[in-house]
Amino acid sequence: MPVPPQLRCCDASGCRSAGGQALRSALEGARDAAGLTAEALMIKPVGCLRLCGSGPLVACDGPGPCQLFGGVAPEHAGDLIAASLASGGAALAAHRLDLEDPFFALQRPVVLEGCGQVNPESIDDAIAFGTYAQLHRVLQELSPEQVRDEVRRSGLRGRGGAGYPTGLKWDTVALQPPGPRYVVCNADEGDPGAFMDRSVLESDPHRLIEGMALAAYAVGAERGFVYVRAEYPLAIERLRLALQQARSRHLLGNHIDGTSFNLRLEVRVGAGAYVCGEETALLLSIQGQRGMPQPRPPFPAQSGLWGAPTLINNVETFTAVPAILREGGDWYAAIGTEHSKGTKVFALSGAVVNTGLVEVPMGTPLRTVVEVIGGGVPDGSPIKAVQTGGPSGGCIPAERLDTPVDYESLLELGSMMGSGGMVVMGESTSMPEVARHFMGFSVNESCGKCVPCRAGTVQLAQLLDRFVERRATPADMERLDALCRMVKVTSLCGLGQSAPNPVLSTLRWFRHEYEAACREPSGCVAAVGVER
Amino acid sequence: MSVVTLTVNGQDVAVPAGASLLEATRAAEANVPTLCHLEGLTPVSACRLCLVEVEGSGKLLPACSTAAAEGMVVHTHTPRLREYRRMTVELFFAEGNHICAVCVANTRCELQDMAVSVGMDHSRFPYQYPQRSVDASHPQFTLDHNRCILCTRCVRVCDEIEGAHVWDIGSRGGQCHIVAGLDEPWGQVQACTSCGKCVEVCPTGALFRNSDTTAEKQPDATLPALLRSARDQRRWHNQ
Ligand SMILES: Cc1cc2nc3c(=O)[nH]c(=O)nc-3n(C[C@H](O)[C@H](O)[C@H](O)COP(=O)(O)O)c2cc1C
Ligand code: SF4
Ligand code: SF4
Ligand code: SF4
Ligand code: FES
Ligand code: FES
């Protein structure tokens, strides 16, 4: 079936900030000027086309193979129209992006399947693309146990950071004593350098809703919430619209698809506190209380919202579910590594040629991600380190770039998968400065409940100041080490427990930089352990 | 009554099912230090002083909010725990403005006692000397933020026992502070019944009666447990 030519314009926040909306109006004007109707040439707003750093991006599905253009301005509108009609585009040669480039060729979209394909504001477009098909099928054909079985077989692990097995979590919620249950989507995404969840929400909100509905069916929940931070206005707007559309099509509400399955989903907007991404704090925040982490157990799966069993998963985790049910858990489990299955979305940024969204099979070597897909440092100089896991993670040195990206390998290197932020650092980066930057973040974002995190991070930041300002002493080195370990093991929640990670990892791989930052560089190593 | 048995520092103890690890350590007379915990109030596990080691668990667990379980092997005073407790107390001292000689709670302060019991003679962390205020707007009581360690005992006793919920916490991180009402001067908060429960349970010199001068505070931290059991059993001492 020949597809009518269309222009897919990225309308996610990255390209919007680069002038994507003006470009789209110019394209519509140019189409009218060329005497074409909207049917003859569709100009479709879509979600993120991945290479956000080269925005605004436009994809042309013309008679020939798909062409992608980046950094285009309204004055290119006429040429773009021409390119889509006659697969020309010679006039735009400088803006053409090579779809055979490893940045695109090595990606394996599962979660991002519909991202850049569907119009995020149209449920018809989503349905035409296949969204909600699994919800239909599952409600007619599968029992909740069968759905959970498929998810368990897929080996999917939570993409919010800790990597807890999703199937196990679903079982735990489902097997609680009878009574009400809730599903909650964690779309707080507070990690600096992360924009994966935002991209999914802005690009394919119906896919997330389908994933949540499948989860709710599997655990027996009839009510759920999506907790999004207020800094994501476009994501919130599109999600609200998508929920409204889904309700009007009876894909949410009572007797979904004529079955006895009911589900009410609502959006809750968080004021933008990093700690509200921690699950127990998030649940308190939904209930209108101050978002402070609580000791666990009880885990949310046992006692969450209003004391009821509550399933809480990340955006990417829920969004992977429809594909898992469509293709089968075994299909998903065949992608990735033994203990980290499937694909993972990364937000690649920093000193790298290709900045954007990358979805690759778990276990892809870090070098492939940052050098081949990312294209390395813009001026061609070597990479010094890659920061993964945001403030909970650490820096991986260049000599370890051959490590596969999976949960265990990153932990072994003293970093973390975290939610998927990946920041590439060039040779000029100072590691004590990086550590101080992240510590500053933890100081500001600590909820203040427990003393090691509240007061310990303040002391750590001041110690790091001494290194950055080159006035540290060997005793500071020892204090830094001891306090990092204390804050790590005595803090109540993941924020405090991981706040020292950027320091510990840079101390591990770049200790010489700390030593060189001491006032008496030579004395530094010898004197450790002497002074108190 | 069903019972669980466990080992604390090598000693076998039996506690009622549902008891906390803290109760178990007390049954074994292990003297686990606590600051935020108070009998009769919901545990919050904020001060981290009661952390203990449980064999088989990689993490340090707060005794105040962890349930005792059959067969647990608990250690309460390993060298590592002692070191962390001392560092914790040092962090408390360094973050506020604790000049004991001129404090109403001097000699009756749980933070001061804690410093003695963990062997802290000085803080290895530099004092922060934060700019903090004193709220003397209440006719009977005063709140001195300089001495507050954010244990939230006042918040909980006012909410859970008195039922007035005058207190809460405002801001984040090192800026955290106790707020009265909607962050108003305490004296203007209509919900305050002037019952004084918060003053009784405050472990430091942060909350005190206006009539108290240096070293005169006489707190009663047993109050929440007393009131709670009196209400549960409908038995009052004066009856
Ligand atoms: C300080 C802190 C912040 C967190 N922020 C997020 C977040 O923004 N998004 C998220 O999905 N998980 C976040 N998490 C992890 C959640 O607590 C939780 O583990 C996760 O949402 C569970 O979903 P998953 O099993 O699908 O990963 C955070 C954890 C901590 C300790
Ligand atoms: S570790 Fe930090 S964020 Fe977590 S509870 Fe303690 S103070 Fe709050
Ligand atoms: S509150 Fe306690 S530790 Fe602080 S100054 Fe008063 S007596 Fe000293
Ligand atoms: S005022 Fe007293 S009781 Fe209240 S939080 Fe501060 S130290 Fe604790
Ligand atoms: S925002 Fe347009 S390509 Fe990502
Ligand atoms: S008493 Fe348990 S943490 Fe404070």
Describe the structure.
- Chain A is built from 23 helices and 14 strands.
- Chain A has helices at residues 13-17, 20-33, 77-86, 102-105, 123-128, 133-141, 144-154, 166-174, 196-203, 205-219, 233-248, 279-286, 315-327, 329-333, 366-373, 407-412, 431-445, 451-468, 474-490, 494-498, 501-509, 511-516, 521-527, and strands at residues 6-10, 42-46, 58-61, 67-69, 96-97, 182-187, 223-229, 264-270, 310-314, 343-350, 356-361, 383-388, 394-397, 421-426.
- Chain A has a five-stranded mixed sheet with strand order 2-1-3-4-5, with helices on one face.
- Chain B has helices at residues 21-27, 79-95, 110-117, 153-162, 197-201, 223-233, and strands at residues 3-8, 11-16, 51-54, 60-62, 73-75, 134-135, 141-144, 167-170, 177-180, 207-209.
- In chain B, strands 2-1-5-3-4 form a five-stranded mixed sheet, covered by helices on one side. Chain B has a three-stranded antiparallel sheet with strand order 6-7-10.
- The two termini of chain B are 30 Å apart.
- The A-B interface holds A 273, 290, 292, 295, 297, 443-452, 454-459, 462, 479, 482-483, 486, 489-492, 532 and B 43-48, 51, 59-60, 62, 65-67, 83-84, 87-88, 91-92, 94-95, 124-126, 128, 149-150, 168-169, 171-176.
- Residues 275, 293, 446-450, 453-454, 491-493, 495-496 of chain A line the site of one iron/sulfur cluster.
- One iron/sulfur cluster (SF4) binds next to helix 3 of chain B.
Mean pLDDT of chain A: 94
Percent in helix of chain B: 10-25%
Q: Order of strands in the sheet with the most strands of chain B?
A: 2-1-5-3-4
- The oligomeric status of these chains comes to heterodimer
Rg of chain A over CA atoms, rounded to whole Å, is 24 Å
What profile does the largest beta sheet of chain A have? 5 strands, mixed
Encode the helix/strand succession of chain B as letters: EEHEEEHHEEHEEHEH
Radius of gyration of chain B from CA coordinates: 19 Å
Query: In percent, how helical is the residue content of chain A?
Result: 40-55%
**Strand percent estimate of chain B:** 15-25%
User: Spatial order of the strands in the main sheet of chain A?
Assistant: 2-1-3-4-5
Count of helical stretches of chain A: 23
Shape of chain B: globular
Task: Kindly report the greatest chain-chain contact and the residue count on each side.
Answer: A-B, 31 and 35 residues
